[in-house]
Structures are given as structure tokens and as C-alpha cells.
Amino acid sequence: MGRGRALLGQPVRSGRGVAAEELRRHNLGVVLKHLHMVGPVSRSELTAKTGLNRSTVADLVGELAARGVVTAGPSKIAPGPGRPSPIVDVRPHGAVVLAIEVAVDSLAVATVGIGGHIFNEIRVARPRGHFQPGQTVVDISQLARPLLAALPAEYNLVGAGVAIVGIVRRRDGFVQCAPHLGWQDIPFPDVLATEFVLDVPVRVANHADLGALGEYRRGGLAGVEHLVFVSGDVGIGCGVIVDGSPLLGSAGYAGEAGHNLINPDGRRCVCGSIGCWETEAGERALLRRVGAAAQGEGLDALARVEELAAGGDPATLAALAETGRWLGTGIRGLINVFNPEIVVLGGLYHRFFDYMEEAANETAAGAIDVSRRMTSIVRSSVGAGAALVGAAELVFDDVIADPAAILPG
Amino acid sequence: MGRGRALLGQPVRSGRGVAAEELRRHNLGVVLKHLHMVGPVSRSELTAKTGLNRSTVADLVGELAARGVVTAGPSKIAPGPGRPSPIVDVRPHGAVVLAIEVAVDSLAVATVGIGGHIFNEIRVARPRGHFQPGQTVVDISQLARPLLAALPAEYNLVGAGVAIVGIVRRRDGFVQCAPHLGWQDIPFPDVLATEFVLDVPVRVANHADLGALGEYRRGGLAGVEHLVFVSGDVGIGCGVIVDGSPLLGSAGYAGEAGHNLINPDGRRCVCGSIGCWETEAGERALLRRVGAAAQGEGLDALARVEELAAGGDPATLAALAETGRWLGTGIRGLINVFNPEIVVLGGLYHRFFDYMEEAANETAAGAIDVSRRMTSIVRSSVGAGAALVGAAELVFDDVIADPAAILPG
DNA sequence: GAGTTATGTTGCATGGCCAAACATATTTGG
DNA sequence: CCAAATATGTTTGGCCATGCAACATAACTC
Predict the structure, then answer these.
(1) A331 within a domain of the structure (yes/no)
(2) Which of A397, A408, B2, B163 shows the greatest Cβ crowding within 10 Å of its Cβ?
(3) What is the CATH number of the domain that holds A49?
């Protein structure tokens, strides 16, 4: 077993043949990806990690340096005998992404350099109303312009990545619907272009899918290749990383676990069905259970819940535990279906993690034995910005896939 | 969008670099896979499909022919002007797999040649008792020997593929548990080797995962790259194909949706939890609903249900519809989570498809709109042997991944 | 300061694919 | 029946990327 995998341990999937030229493309990507993900390494280490020849690595690093995305600095203190190897690192402004997050309660923009370096980030709260897409791109534009202006002089913008709380078609970034924004059938890249001409590709994806990607790439989860990210907003967003790649499904709508049936005796969901996961474990369910003590909705009400919980209010703690149990029940299903190494909790669940962890673990324990024993439920380590980080990563994937095509020669 | 993918449209995933040698490996695999999946094609068509140069394809086909897996027959009737192109086809006995299926009620063995040619197949019913693994491999051996003896003289056995109704570790085919067989912690390839020395790799995987693979490869579903296969046995098995590859999860335990909570007020499952999908939609649930008219369990009882249903017995039809509704509810969750193009029903649901389809569609309609509209629920087209076919495909994947390493030079 | 060790650098060899020129087999048209 | 047109097979030479080996270099160790 274990033998017999082609090209990089990947199964033969595409029907297309490969020429020598693509080989170079791939190897450039391998080197750049390694630097992007693990940071500065010696060139000799790069040789060991890639399995390529010393001379080949030297050549690849040379080309990436010529294209301005890596620097081959002087060798640092050498730990042993032998000629010291130069330290290679990414050069953040060699490839910069404008990351945009359209969330339920806020709008955020960041300029991110390759390697994950955040030059600047700004987030503004927006009341939960229904902002038209046109108004939203105006707001984005106003947030973004100063950030772009503040970048180092010779930066190289390679694309824009957008995270949206809605269902997005993977092919073209078309927003099928975004109930929390009141959007339906919005060709977002086109709308953005009307306000903000960037001259670079715009990639759009679902908020939770990008949260998963952000956690996977920047969550300090070395070696984890299978994870599920569950984020509580008004609804429940869910993103999955399988074998190191985002699970998108055939059109890009995968991961919508929030509308799975979890309680046939439950309430009616906004989607029209009865007893969806998010009607039992989402924000509304939590506030409903807390009751009059935290009236209204959105950030103010949640802040009140946090206060009450911190003060040890029994009713609030009970509401959080009950919500945690439903959260865990849904997670149980995801563990069964995906057999991930970890389940990462974000959004609402990140905020109230300490109050919900135990209850969630209790019901998630209903998953099949072998999977449950190997899976742990953890708090998001990237935090509120996971989707924003993921939006940048979405574009960096393009750069990694073909550095020579995107970076200046 | 859509640009910027490396090597065959696959993202850069592995950290390893690629040498020219691997390139050849891959291209041989691409050609062989195409022939394996679509059957005989002209060499010029192969050139068009792979995107490779004429001379390269000639060389690749020549090598595969020299290794005995393909034949470059004479050209067939040419449809237009120009020099006719020779028809290339697989040579089934150039790569033969011994496929084995350990199911709940039966044991099956087949000899399958590359291209999917089934030389021989035999299936024997076994009462549902707990056969020890040792006894099972003796039975397999007795079924398999005559099949191997009946193969063409100069066949080339490349491996054995085994489908088991249980939870299998992907790394080494270790059977963690198989409740329906009464097995626990069985290193199946080793146990098989004690009875049956094959001198070829033995690949083991879950029954439903291989059912999905079998449907994907041999179900006549051209172009479908995302599917979910749901098979009703005693429990519910579930296998998923994502982007043309089986979803395995981090250890190989993915797809165990049968133990997801679907009814908090339901019955206790054999797994210890309450209200699992399979306690509402599995074989026991169906027989329970049919009641005294179909006593007992297993094949006899199901045959009785079929009779009653065919005769139009209202109580039986109601029981099938109710079971179909719970089936559809579970499928709804899978549609939300995977956004597949189709959901294929096998096993029990294949058998009673006509009686359950409508009810299943009714509840599955609770899935989110965009996914539901694009997903259809269909009956398995491969039928009872899907897992057996999938077991063969598992081994063919090894051959396709590196033809030169496995096939004689 | 000489020996040891690990790495960088250079030039050449290898392997695989492509492009172009030529050869071949069939259809079409006179 | 033969020639033109067409599409494909075949052969040769060239290109490109990587590997290999020999040599150069820069540290550490004694």
C-alpha cells in the first residue's frame, strides 16, 4: 500500500497531459508556497523539503527573487559545522492582496502581503440593515483607498479577495443569495468594478469557507490537513478543508450545514424549514434562551450576554450551555461525515467558547467512536479576522499556482 | 477568475518538487486512465483529449502497449478524409484485479480487467451471523481460486481490492470495527495473507466508499465529478466523491452519516446514541414499520416486503413512504453539506427505489434552494455490485498512478 | 592553521516533450 | 483511374528543466 501515486502524491485527476513548462510552474509554486506558509528558511532546508536538487532550488529561488517575491538574505548564525546556507524569505510587498470582508455586522478591508503580512487592516461596524450592493462597494472603496495609498512605494497588487456572508458560485463569484445582507443574484466582481477599478482579478467566496481557509493557513495548525470551521453569526456558517484544499462542492455551495435538520420539533427557520441547526444553535436561539435580559439583536444584545455570563448569571449560563449542546450535536454530524482532525469554532462560538465548550463536547461525543477520539474541538486562533485572512489566501493561491504568470518578469 | 492553476488544473498541494521522470509517469497515467474510463478511442482523439503532441502520444501509447495494457488495433471505418487513426483500447488481462466484497448478507468475488471488463463474478449468500475473519478469508479463497484459474493464460494480476461493511483505516486497510460482521481491530490484509498468498498489494476500504467509486467510474455518469452514494443495508452506508476523488477524511472514516442525529425523540441506535439516521431509515426501521407482516430480518423479510409492496398493500406502502421521508431528510443534509450533482441510492434503496423516491424527494427538498435545484436523486445504475466494482477501481487507481512501476517492462 | 563538514556554483548529461519535415492512407473530384 | 486534398503517423533535431559530479567556499573543530 501507499505506493503508486503520481505527481506529488496526487492521484491522476485531470485528463490533460503535462509538458516540461508546467513542471517549472509547479516547482516555482512549491517553493513559494513553502515560504508563504512556514516563513523564512535556509535554502538548504528548502532543498530537503522539496526533494529537488540543490542546483534546481538555487535556480528557482533565483527566479522568484528576480520577480520580487522573495529575498535571499545573508545566512544567520549557523548551528553547526559546514558552510552556512542563506536564509530565504518572502518579500511581502512583492505580492499584495486587497482583502475584503462583508460580514453581518461589519465591513473590513486589509492589505496583505505574501507570507501573510498584514500591512493595514480596518474594520467598521455597520448596523444590520440591508445595504444595497452598490452602497457596500462605495463603502469598501472608501475604506480601501487610504490603505492602498499607505503601502510601500513599489508594491505589486496581485488581486482582491472578498469574503461574503452568502452563497457564492465558485465559477465567477456570483452571489446567489445573502439573506443577512438582503442580496440576491449579485454579480459581485462586476458591481465592485463599477466603483473601484483595480485592474487585477477579483475572487469572491463564502465567508465561512474563507474562515476555514484562514484558520488552515494562519491558525498555527501545523500538519493539520483536514479541518471543519464552524462560525456562529446570525446563522451558522461552515467551511471545510479536505486534504489541504477547501471543499466547495460542484457549484461552490458546499458546507451549508446550518440548514440541516437537527430537531423535527423545533422552530421554523428563515429558510422555511423546521428545526434547522441554526434555529437551535445560532445567535437568535441563544438570545431567545437568555430571554428578556438581553433584548434586541446583534452586537448590543451579545455584549449584554457576555456581561451576564461573566457575572455568573445562572440563567444566562444555562442558555449558553443549552446552545452549546445543540452546537455539539451539529458538530457530531460533521465529525461523522468529514472525519477531521479538528473542529475550529469562530464568530459567536469563538466569543462564548469558554461557556459552551463543555456542553458542545458532551453532545459531539455522540459521533462514531474512531472519529470522535481523534477529533478535538478548539477555539479559533485567528479570531474575528479569519475570513479576511482567508480572502487574501484565496488570491495567494493564484500566485502560488503560477508565479511566473502573475509576477513581473 | 479561473486562471492560475498549476499542473493539470490542480492546485499546488504537495510540498514536493517534481522531476521530469514524474512527468512521464503522469502522462502515462493520463492516457491509461482515459482508455480505462471511456474505452476504445482513436489515437488522434487521444492526442486531442490529452493536449499532448502527436509524437508524445505515439510514444506513450507505444510504451503502454509494450507493457501489455493496451492494444493499438487497426483503424476502423474512417468518417472523413485524411489518414485513418488506429484505434487504441485497453487489454483487460494486461492488468487484472481480484475484487472482493464482504457484505452483510453475502460474499462476492470477481476478476476484473482494466477497462472494467469483468471476467468472472461470483456471489454467495451468507446468513447474517458473525463469521470470524479467519473463516471469511477461507471462504474468499475458495471462491477466488477457480476464478483466477479461469483467467486467460497470460494474465497479469496487479492487486486485490476489498470492500468491507465496516470502518477501515485508509493508511493500511486495518478494519477498526465492523459491527455487522462482529469484527473489531482486524488487520485485514494480514489475515487475508494467512490464507491466500497473492504476492500483490491488497487494498481495503469501506463498502459505501467503494460503492460511490463504483458508481462514479462505471455508472455511466459522464461528466459528474461530485456525487453522494447512499446505500441501505442494516445500517446506512455513505460514500462521497468530491471533484472526482473519494472523500476519505483524515484517517479514512469520513462518510459515516448513518449515525448523525436526525430525530431527538427517536430510538436508541446500536451505536448507543438516540435517533441516528439509520434507526429511522435503515432496514430495521423499515421492517419495524411494516410490522408483523414481514417478520424476522434480512433477505427473507425484505423479500416479503417486496411482495407486499408489489401487491399494493397499503400498510407496506405507507411504511416504505415513511422510511423514504426519513431517507430524504438525511439526504437533505448531505446535499447541503456536499452540493453534489447527484445522489445515488443503492442497496435497500435501490431495491425499493420506486416506492421511496417520491417521499425522499419531498423531504430532501428542505435543502437550501440553490443546491436542491441542481441535485437529483437517482437509483444506482451499477446495482448490487457497485462496491465490488469500486474495489477493483481502487486498485486500478494504483496502476493509473504509475503504470511503469506496476506493469511489466 | 589544517582538517572536517555542509553548502553554493558551474558545466555537462539525461529525459521528456514539441515542432517541423516527411511519409502514408484515405476521401473527393475530375 | 489518377491527382488533389486532408488528416494522421513517423522521424529527426532542438529545447527545457532537472539531476549529477566536480570544484569552490565558508563556517566549525581541534
Answers:
(1) yes
(2) B163
(3) 1.10.10.10
Across the interface, whether the CB atoms of A339 and B251 are under 8 A apart is answered: yes
Strand C proximal to B52 Cβ, under 7 A: yes
Determine if strand C comes within 7 Å of the CB of B16.
no
- Residue B355 and residue B231 share a domain: yes
Chain C: positions less than 7 Å from a protein CB are 3-11, 14-20, 23-28
Tell me which residues from 84 to 113 on chain B have a beta carbon below 7 angstroms from nucleic acid strand C: 84
| Residue B249 shares a structural domain with residue B341 | yes
Q: Would you state the pLDDT for residue B10?
A: 56
Same domain, B135 and B228: no
Does A398 lie in the same domain as A361?
no
Query: Using the CA of A48, which nucleotide's C1' is the nearest one?
Result: C7
Residue from B211, B279, B280, B262 nearest B240 by CA: B211
Q: Using an 8 Å Cβ cutoff, are B214 and B387 in contact?
A: yes
The grid cell for A363 is 453532545
> Left (φ > 0), alpha (ψ -120 to 50) or beta: where does A306 sit?
alpha
**Interatomic separation, CA of residue B52 and C1' of nucleotide D9, rounded (Å):** 15
Let me know whether B229 and B370 are in one domain: yes
pLDDT of residue A241: 98
Of B35, B61, B90, the residue that ends a domain is B90
Q: Is A312 helix (H, G, I), strand (E, B) or coil?
A: coil
Distance CA A60, CA A40 (A): 16
- Asked if residue A8 belongs to a domain, the reply is no
**Which residue type is seen at B2?**
G
Candidates B265, B261, B334, B258; CA nearest to A265 is B265
Domain span at residue A140? 94-211+387-406
B11 within domain boundaries: no
- Dig out the grid coordinates for B379 from the structure: 437509483
Q: Which of B324, B322, B337, B323 is nearest to B372 (CA)?
A: B337
Q: Which of A26-30, A165-169, B194-198 has the lowest mean pLDDT?
A: B194-198
Q: Which of B30, B189, B243 sits opposite A12 (nearest CB)?
A: B30
The answer to whether A225 touches A341, Cβ cutoff 8 Å, is yes
State the amino acid at position B267 in one-letter form. Answer: R
Yes or no, beta carbons of A370 and B260 under 8 Å apart = no
Closest-CA residue of chain A to B22: A7
Residue B5 lies in a domain: no
For residues B198 and B251, is the Cβ–Cβ distance under 8 A? no
CATH code, domain carrying A180: 3.30.420.40
In this structure, are B269 and B178 located in the same domain?
A: no
Partner residue opposite A251 with nearest CB, options B18, B374, B397: B374
What's the rounded Cα separation, in Å, for the pair B43 and B73? Answer: 10
Shared domain for A78 and A119, answered yes or no, is no
Closest residue (CA) to C1' of nucleotide D29 is A81
State the total domains in chain B: 3
pLDDT in tens, B228-287: 999 998 899 999 999 999 999 999 999 999 999 999 888 998 888 888 999 999 999 999
Last residue in a domain, options A90, A125, A144? A90
Question: From its phi and psi, is residue B67 left (phi > 0), alpha (psi between -120 and 50) or beta?
Answer: alpha
pLDDT number for residue A21: 80
Full-model pTM: 0.94
The residue assigned the cell 428563515 is A270
| B252 & B361 share domain | yes
Beta-carbon separation of B10 and A12 below 8 A? no
Rounded Cα gap, residues B130 and B121, in angstroms: 24
A63 CB and strand C closer than 7 A: no
